[in-house]
Amino acid sequence: xxxxxxxxxxxxxxxxxxxxxxxxxxxxxxxxxxxxxxxxxxxxxxxxxxxxxxxxxxxxxxxxxxxxxxxxxxxxxxxxxxxxxxxxxxxxxxxxxxxxxxxxxxxxxxxxxxxxxxxxxxxxxxxxxxxxxx
Length: 134
Known about the structure:
With about 130 residues, the chain is mostly helical. It has one domain (about 5-50, about 85-134). The chain is about 75% helix and about 0% strand. The protein has five helices and no strands. The longest helix has 30 residues, at about 95-120. The relative contact order is 0.23.
């Protein structure tokens, strides 16, 4: 048994990611971790420059295409990794957050879970641009 109180930040990160993927699947793990990225920038100011002014039809077409691509990627991930994945579309972000916290606490203990989440919160990024790129 590993003494979880003596884990390095890198070890906490590795064990945490593995626990989240096991509990939530890769897509759920990403949805969980994104909840802790605060991002930066002024989305209100920059959204028109980033998003443009699409029509309703263009928005709907983009949503349908993103859903199709996400389903395709999820199916490919199952074939490639053999990981059983939950359908994260059936859960709210709050439920995914709780499931992730439960998985991290089980894998790392309460202190390790808190350290893992602090590592997520300290990362930075420019939300408006990364959101559009994903």
